[in-house]
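Q: What residues go here?
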């Protein structure tokens, strides 16, 4: 009976040491796994591939109620405008471009999504056809009384193509992931020079 109690006690000690070692290893691996590399800073003058789209930033400026391509701004309101050239790299027409540029730390209201306008014809959020570069304007309405920024930061979001998704078994672009950040100088109006880093 004493021998059985000793062997049980020995088993508990070994199990306790093994559990403690497993927790320690998991904690160390978790700490290394949680370390995130900083996102790369993308050159504002470069062409950026996001998977579905090829982007080329053109100009950034603040406008006061005019030159906002017909976006429905409040009377007397200001807007932060980013002009980009976009090329649809897929095989069919799409307007899946609402989430590829996320503004952060700007005078624009971060909670609101931008209006996206085709500069040619001022059409709100049109479908873009494959392989045809189009100039688009991303327009963030600014908060009342906000001071015009001299620069603003954007996070660029990319997606990956899957031949079959897990839910419907259909092809598509999935897993939106930040691929880099852009810091853009903001000019005084639509006639400002090209985007500068």
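A:
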């Amino acid at each position: 009976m004493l021998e059985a109690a000793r062997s049980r006690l020995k088993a508990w000690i070994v199990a306790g040491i093994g559990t403690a070692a497993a927790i320690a290893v998991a904690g160390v691996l978790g700490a290394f796994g949680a370390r995130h590399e900083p996102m790369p800073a993308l050159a504002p003058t470069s062409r950026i591939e996001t998977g579905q789209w090829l982007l080329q930033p053109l100009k950034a400026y603040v406008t006061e109620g005019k030159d906002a391509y017909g976006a429905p701004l409040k009377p007397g309101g200001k807007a932060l405008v980013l002009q980009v050239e976009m090329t649809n790299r897929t095989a069919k027409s799409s307007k899946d471009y609402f989430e590829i540029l996320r503004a952060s730390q700007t005078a624009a209201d971060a909670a609101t999504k931008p209006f996206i306008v085709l500069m040619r014809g001022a059409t709100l959020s049109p479908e873009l056809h494959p392989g045809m570069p189009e100039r688009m304007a991303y327009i963030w309405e600014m908060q009342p009384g906000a001071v015009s920024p001299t620069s603003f930061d954007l996070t660029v979001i990319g997606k990956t193509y899957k031949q079959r998704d897990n839910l419907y078994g259909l092809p598509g672009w999935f897993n939106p992931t930040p691929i880099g950040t852009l810091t853009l100088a903001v000019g005084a109006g639509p006639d400002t020079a090209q985007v500068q880093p």
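A: Context that may help when evaluating the design: DSSP finds one helix and nine strands in the chain. Strands lie at 48-49, 53-64, 78-88, 101-104, 115-118, 123-124, 134-141, 151-162, 172-185.
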